[in-house]
Amino acid sequence: MANPNSLPLYERIRRKNAIQRAIDIIILFLLLSLLIYRLLFFNDHGLTWLLAFLCESSFTFTWVLIINAKWNPVEYKSHPDHLLRRAIELPSVDMFVTTADPVLEPPIITINTVLSLLAVDYPPHKLACYVSDDACSLLTFYSLVEASKFAKLWVPFCKKYNIQVRAPFRYFFNDSLLSSDTSWEFRQEWIRIKDEYEQLQQKIQLAAKNSVACDFSGEFAEFANVERENHPSIIKGEAGAMNVLARVSGLMTNAPYMLNVDCDMFVNNPKVVLHAMCLLLDPNSEKEFAFAQFPQVLYDRLKDDPYGNQMMVFFEYMVRGILGIQGVFYNGTGCFHRRKIIYGLSPDNVDSVDEKLAEEILSKFGSSKKLIKSAAHALEGKTNLADNLWDSIEAAHRVTSCEYEYGTSWGTKLGWRYGSMTEDVLTGLSIHRRGWRSVYCTPDPPAFLGCGSGGGSSVMTQQKRWATGLLEIMLSKNCPIFATLFGKLQFRQCLVYLYMFLWGLCSIPELCYATLPAYCIITNSSFLPKVQEPAFYVLVAFFVIYNLYTLSEYLRTGQSIRAWWNNQRMSRIISMNACFFGFLSVMLKLLGISETVFEVTKKDQSSDVANDDNAGRFTFDKSPIFVPGTTILLLHLTALIVIFMKLQPPAHDGHGSGLGEVLCSVWLVLCFWPFLKGLSGKGKHGIPMSTICKSVALALIFLQLCRKTTIH
Ligand SMILES: O=c1ccn([C@@H]2O[C@H](COP(=O)(O)OP(=O)(O)O[C@H]3O[C@H](CO)[C@@H](O)[C@H](O)[C@H]3O)[C@@H](O)[C@H]2O)c(=O)[nH]1
């Protein structure tokens, strides 16, 4: 029999992708051929040809970045059963949950996440759970206190019956679990625990209604006179909260590993900590992997991914490809970090921290002696529980105060990094810059499940925030190019980051390219080769191969043709609306006109999407974010009317618009179909009149421009 210590904790499997590489190269070849053709016939065409050339050059560059990211896909398979057979002591893990708004993130969601974390299959004395609440909500605190009482029933129940789903709202959603082949004892306990959970829910609902009439005594005393957005905690986005949690946990439990999850991401696989430990505890990975990231999987996924936010293809092909370079980026949730790396260690000094280095690192921690002592222990790889919990609580109060970070390196050289809406990606980049790799773990069933943003408006808000945050990093001193030149970020990993960070900027060529067909039809000019020119077939080949190729990716991940189409059109909608606004907000920030703000995504626990007729319908709000899309749609409708009513002016130099331009225009109208429906839709499914008016005004200006440029 094999020695249990020799059984591998994980395997690294290379994926075969010869066909994918070949198609990637063919597409690149077609794009380059088109660019060369445009260069060769530059003199015969005007401005539209030049603009098309510039836009296509940017698309080709993006394609090169995509090929680079997907070139060497790998996957990791972890073996928790091998870990359990090894004669080693499992390390402690501090688990962090962040919440920021009791209205957008109802406390019942947060407590379900906490309960699922407390119930994981891992020695309970090795786990500690910390919750930060940037809203300083009494309701959230009350819910947590009540949940901790319920946990005393819930955790033993889960462990005794080896329950798979350990978030009660999700577990009790399915009555069929109480099937006839379960024991009488189980059924009795099931009914009792469900009853207790329902009582817990009711208490929270009642407290939410009566929140004003609270008794601020005992453990609630500190909440007296606290207002939601005016209280002495740190609001910097999630990074501020994470740094507070890192410091507080350092004083209380100081575990060498830290897990962080968003308040809506509950544990779906009870062995999640064991899976992560397989990847992080192996002696080979000690000097290699900084963090283990789990994918963000949504529960109650809407059929055919109408909002294009399930990102299954992205995780399957892109992320696995990145894993073959320096490793997946940090997603901000579902991630296990090593404390010493968050404190600043590099692969070269992780084994032994000499006195000088320790002194240098510890000098950045601020004035708390207790925190410095705990950090010194963490750097040496020691876990120390607080000797006296009350002393630690007092010290913890100090390190959570807003002023504590002044004059320290928290957020700059230490902990989670500030300076971007996507602090997670920035923090991950700062770790990769030091030469660390990262790993991605995809157990079955998925480790965590979270709720996705639904409707058009919240998807746009979230995507705009991502585009803003990523571009903020690109245009700062944290730019990945510097990280490669002056740090240890690998060149190919730098290209991966460039692909992500330039995402917001890509909205400019995309918007420009989307207006070209309308402009050309209205002015009877052209930007595409004619049917009789060979380059026309290059374009057709590109269009057909690219779409069949992306379609095959959806089919291979078990998704439908409809899901593919929804994602194609959502990519266009997100790029031309959310990303464009992300780009604008970064520009306004650079010009010092306005600051970027973290807009929290609304979390919804409802599980009845299957019966909702409007589930998947695009929603709008008064935000100007929908103006670019509405304008593009109006322009293309106008262009199609112009061509079908034969209203085009005579062509100049025989270069009038042709089949290519008309097909592009039809394609764009199809992409913006939800907007077309929104023009006549009612309520949140209709585009607000103010947005339509602004778009009409912009379209009229554009038509005027077209008229001016056609008067020869
Ligand atoms: O001032 C804040 C703002 C947010 N949060 C928490 O941060 C998490 C993420 O916020 P959310 O609105 O849910 O953002 P998402 O777009 O859903 O989250 C993804 O993208 C964010 C970056 O934009 C990352 O921070 C998240 O971890 C990642 O899951 C939530 O738990 C919030 O409660 C705070 O604690 N304080």
TrEMBL record:
Question: Which positions, given as ranges, span the membrane?
Answer: 21-41, 47-67, 496-516, 536-552, 573-593, 625-645, 657-675, 687-706
Biological process according to GO: cell wall organization; cellulose biosynthetic process
The molecular function terms of the Gene Ontology recorded here are:
cellulose synthase (UDP-forming) activity
User: What Pfam families does UniProt report for this protein, alphabetically?
Assistant: Cellulose_synt
**What Gene Ontology cellular-component terms does the record carry?**
endomembrane system; membrane
Q: Where in the cell is the protein located?
A: Endomembrane system
Q: Enumerate the UniProt keywords alphabetically.
A: Cell wall biogenesis/degradation, Glycosyltransferase, Membrane, Transferase, Transmembrane, Transmembrane helix
Instruction: Report residues binding UDP-alpha-D-glucose.
Output: 105, 134
Q: Where is the active site?
A: 134, 424
Cross-referenced InterPro entries, in alphabetical order?
Cellulose_synth (IPR005150), Nucleotide-diphossugar_trans (IPR029044)
Membrane topology term: Multi-pass membrane protein
Q: Which Gene3D superfamilies match?
A: Spore Coat Polysaccharide Biosynthesis Protein SpsA, Chain A
What is the protein name given in its UniProt record?
A: Glycosyltransferase 2-like domain-containing protein
Which organism does this sequence originate in? Carpinus fangiana
